[in-house]
């Protein structure tokens, strides 16, 4: 080391400094590159998430909710509509783990079968919101000019409308409501935040050098949008969408509770909570179990969104 | 400053017209004929029906009806509804109690949200912080109406501390529980925002300088940390006033309060379109105004922001 202490500039015959081969252990460098995977945003995030217990709790809840909504028959003890008025308001016991409702339905089985409605509406609404909001935000940010002005004002207008109120008005328009329709209505007023996020991300990427390079190489507008602009927006959208899924589940339950969400024939937590309201004094457990199932599912998604956000944000990582 | 306010007001105009037109269109498209429903099973005599349609401009095209509505809004005279009650009276009667409820909720969520958020942010990663964070997640996850039931059962029925429902002309005490329920979710968001913001500000250079020049812990917290951390929080609180008033649909239903929520829901069911749109318009205006005030508050909170 000491002999080339002052050797800063290029050596004779070279236009830049190159370390002599005997001083650099080339093999060692190659070994590092082979052993360690390239540090990418998602790779770092994954490593960060794995180490947090909250991630595993959230993952367990979400997996359980999904499993139960796909295969309710495997977990439930009886058919949700198989009710016996003679067994009205039984306390929890071996036949009915959570007791029975006023109509003599098994609360446990109804809670299990109710998951499907909530999860379906939540997943569908989130998918619609990501597609609709993503498309509007991407176009507004990428095209710019008067298109941006119009789309941004449109976003402001929808953002200013009270969400629950708009959903009530639209849903009361529909004679025939199912999970798909409810999800569509929720999405048609819930897309504004995703649109703003996407627009912001696209704007911040638009003038980067790699986009200019892609243009120079002859890449089309749509290609640039899909390959360069949208991946940049993916992280904030995923974080927002995870939390939004939770809030859509709440919104569906609220609307069904108010009597304008899913029709009474569908087994859903919101509907069961609405029915259970009459028994609030005699048997609070009629409300507690579907309420707890609802809260737990939402908690799972919100916690997941939280963990993912922390993992994707390098500033939050060092605690 | 005046120039800035003027420009902001200009931006408000398209939002105002867009939102009212959208709501008016949605309500207009509703199936069912409120006039036919007035007569019940026997139906109205054709002459009376025609006269009612004439009176409410129901024969005219959509855009004309919307213009009549705008005229009504700007002259503060929306005419009678289908039962003969002036729409303006219904609207004016509905707002005071909801406004009181929303302000109470806003006060609760601001005080507790910022308070807990500040302490949690100062002790990031410690036990208090983790506990508060888990509680805030629970508050967000439990839907408002479930929270309402739980509080009714626990605080109202079992402990008998607060009235279970509010009813007509509610006083402060009977509005306390609904306000707490209404504030719940927003409080959790304010708490989390404050916590993140405070934790970030604590690492800023100016806070270290303040400590280095010998300010006491309390002075650093109130003058330098809190003031700088509040901008995102204030943004949220401003946007939330409108949400609270609209969100009261559910809360008012649970606690039997006769405010905007109840009136709105009833009007939707009865097909009183003008009432629905009038209330929505006021909600949108409140929302826009609150956001404008928030933008102006930025300059007070952060001396770096100036509106030229």
From TrEMBL, chain A:
Pfam families given in the database record: BPD_transp_1, OppC_N
Residue ranges of domain ABC transmembrane type-1 in the record: 115-305
Keyword tags: Cell membrane, Membrane, Transmembrane, Transmembrane helix, Transport
Localization: Cell membrane
Predominant cellular place of this UniProt entry's protein: membrane
Record-annotated membrane-spanning stretches: 54-75, 123-145, 157-174, 180-198, 237-266, 286-308
Membrane topology, as annotated: Multi-pass membrane protein
Source domain of life: Bacteria
Protein family per UniProt: Belongs to the binding-protein-dependent transport system permease family.
Protein name (Swiss-Prot/TrEMBL): ABC transporter permease
Lineage: Bacteria, Bacillati, Actinomycetota, Actinomycetes, Micrococcales
From TrEMBL, chain B:
Classification via CDD domains: TM_PBP2
The ABC transmembrane type-1 domain, residue ranges: 95-294
Record-linked Pfam families: BPD_transp_1, BPD_transp_1_N
Keyword hit for Transferase: no
Membrane disposition: Multi-pass membrane protein
Broad class of the protein's primary localization: membrane
Keywords linked to the UniProt accession: Cell membrane, Membrane, Transmembrane, Transmembrane helix, Transport
Similarity comment text for this entry: Belongs to the binding-protein-dependent transport system permease family.
Protein name, UniProt field: ABC transporter permease
Organism the protein comes from: Myceligenerans crystallogenes
Upper lineage: Bacteria, Bacillati, Actinomycetota, Actinomycetes, Micrococcales
């Amino acid at each position: 080391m000491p002999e080339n202490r002052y050797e800063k500039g290029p050596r004779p015959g070279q236009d830049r400094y190159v370390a002599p081969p005997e001083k650099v252990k080339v093999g060692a460098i190659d070994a590092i590159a082979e052993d360690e995977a390239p540090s990418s945003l998602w790779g770092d995030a994954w490593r960060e998430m794995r180490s947090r217990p909250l991630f595993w709790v959230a993952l367990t809840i979400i997996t359980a909710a999904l499993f139960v909504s796909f295969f309710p028959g495997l977990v439930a003890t009886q058919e949700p509509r198989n009710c016996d008025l003679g067994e009205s308001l039984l306390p929890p016991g071996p036949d009915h783990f959570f007791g029975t409702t006023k109509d003599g339905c098994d609360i446990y089985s109804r809670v299990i079968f109710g998951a499907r409605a909530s999860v379906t509406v939540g997943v569908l609404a989130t998918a619609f919101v990501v597609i609709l909001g993503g498309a509007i935000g991407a176009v507004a940010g990428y095209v710019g000019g008067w298109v941006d002005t119009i789309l941004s004002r449109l976003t402001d207008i929808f953002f200013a409308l009270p969400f629950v109120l708009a959903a009530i008005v639209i849903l009361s328009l529909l004679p025939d409501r199912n999970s798909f329709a409810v999800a569509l209505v929720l999405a048609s007023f819930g897309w504004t935040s995703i649109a703003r996020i996407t627009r912001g991300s696209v704007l911040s990427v638009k003038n980067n050098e790699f986009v200019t390079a892609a243009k120079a190489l002859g890449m089309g507008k749509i290609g640039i949008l899909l390959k360069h602009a949208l991946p940049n927006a993916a992280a904030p959208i995923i974080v927002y969408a995870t939390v939004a899924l939770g809030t859509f589940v709440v919104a569906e339950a609220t609307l069904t509770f108010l009597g304008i969400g899913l029709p009474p024939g569908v087994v859903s937590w919101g509907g069961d909570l609405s029915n259970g309201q009459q028994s609030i004094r005699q048997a609070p457990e009629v409300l507690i179990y579907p309420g707890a199932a609802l809260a737990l599912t939402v908690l799972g998604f919100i916690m997941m969104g939280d963990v993912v956000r922390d993992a994707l944000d390098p500033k939050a990582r060092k605690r | 400053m005046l120039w800035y306010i003027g420009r902001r007001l200009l931006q408000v105009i398209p939002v105002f017209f867009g939102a009212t037109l959208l709501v008016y269109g949605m309500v207009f498209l509703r199936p069912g004929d409120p006039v036919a429903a007035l007569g019940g099973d026997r139906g109205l005599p054709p002459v009376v029906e025609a006269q009612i349609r004439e009176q409410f401009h129901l024969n005219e095209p959509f855009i004309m009806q919307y213009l009549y509505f705008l005229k009504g809004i700007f002259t503060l005279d929306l005419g009678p509804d289908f039962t003969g009650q002036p729409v303006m009276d219904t609207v004016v009667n509905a707002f005071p109690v909801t406004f009181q409820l929303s302000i109470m909720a806003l006060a609760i969520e601001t005080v507790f949200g910022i308070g807990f958020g500040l302490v949690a942010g100062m002790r990031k990663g410690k036990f208090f912080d983790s506990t508060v964070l888990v509680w805030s997640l629970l508050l967000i996850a439990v839907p408002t109406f479930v929270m309402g039931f739980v509080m009714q059962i626990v605080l109202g029925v079992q402990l008998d501390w607060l009235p279970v429902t509010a009813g007509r002309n509610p006083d402060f005490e009977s509005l306390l529980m609904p306000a707490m329920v209404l504030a719940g979710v927003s409080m959790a968001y304010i708490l989390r925002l404050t916590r993140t913001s405070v934790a970030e500000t604590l690492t800023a250079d100016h806070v270290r300088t303040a400590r280095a020049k010998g300010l006491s812990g309390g002075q650093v917290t109130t003058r330098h940390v809190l003031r700088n951390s509040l901008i995102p929080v204030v943004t949220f609180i401003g946007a939330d006033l409108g949400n609270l008033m609209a969100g009261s649909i559910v809360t008012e239903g649970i606690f039997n309060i006769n405010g905007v929520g109840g009136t709105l829901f009833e009007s939707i069911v009865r097909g009183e379109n003008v009432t629905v749109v009038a209330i929505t318009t006021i909600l949108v205006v409140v929302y826009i105004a609150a956001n404008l005030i928030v933008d102006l508050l930025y300059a007070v909170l952060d001396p770096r922001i100036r509106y030229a």
